Write the structure tokens for this entry.
Amino acid sequence: MGHRILITGGAGFIGSHLADALLRQGYAVRVLDHLSPQVHGDGEKRPGYLDAKVELVRGDVCDRRTVRRAFDEVDAVFHLAAAVGVGQSMYQIADYTTANNLGTAVVLEQAIEHRKRLRRLVVASSMSIYGEGMYEDADGRQRPNTVRAEARMRSKHWDPVDESGRPLIPVATPETKPPRLASIYALSKFDQEQMCLITGRAYGIETVALRLFNVYGPRQAVSNPYTGVLAIFATRLLNNRPPVIFEDGLQQRDFVSVHDVAQAFLLALHVPGAAGGTFNIGSGQRYTVLELAARLAEVMERSHITPEVNGQYRVGDIRHCFANITRARQILGYTPGVSLDRGMAELAQWLQTQHASDHVEQAHAELAARGLTA
């Protein structure tokens, strides 16, 4: 493998941790990032957490000239640049499609031009492409195409059932589960993944897609109300307000430390057998959203603030999805090493240094005004 690595979107939460990990391995790291105000604040300065040794190319992933400059003398590319957020994607459709789909197309055209030098392309995909996770019925049969009936959700019956009304049992979701795209964001992430894999196959560029589950940790954009649920809860708690939880809070998710995710990206770069593969990257554990909110309040010493469970739901929301990480363990050698307790303690310590603007109510109002909550 060569010595210069490009990370698109590399000044963000996950990309900056990946940059740190690459620098520790002796790589030269270049980052392409347009420093979105929603993520980085209105100052749009180089983030203080981005290592001084990282070369920052400031610019838009959709701009061909900028992307061509970023690709100069690069040996491998991590493509992380994307607009993130399920709810917002349902009304900023053009923005999400431009950043995620067109941005990926521009990156891939440069990858084709530089394919003789380019050893590997690793793209950040998302668990959102699955829609609902995998379920089994009472007889142990897999139900990969589960969706929730609107009528049941309106009457606050949150868990999916089979045709005879029996509850379905959530199980860990494998990569073989067919995609079920429930939002513009999910559609754009699936497009990013498939565009990269298709182009990689056609042009002989080794390509790996990592389907990331709920990533958390220091440097998450705490003032962005469309980002990860833990960061959103943290923002509320930092402002001494209750986290707002949709449905009944018993929906299950897989929360994975950003340090484990950075390690997975390194493995995707190095492991020969990874080329052409898609891999779930999670913790392999499941937690309810209510449990997460309580644990976060505890480590932030704000246990007296009780979450507000609002009994509403958002268009595109799913009930349960947590990762089967067997394939990543077997092929990548991926082993998540950060326990939830340790990860939460680190997050809490970092949060003490942050001032977070709380835009959560404004974000909820945006969705409600468009009929995207019920």
About this structure: Residues 34 and 248 are 38 Å apart (CA to CA). The longest helix spans residues 93-113. The longest strand covers residues 120-126.
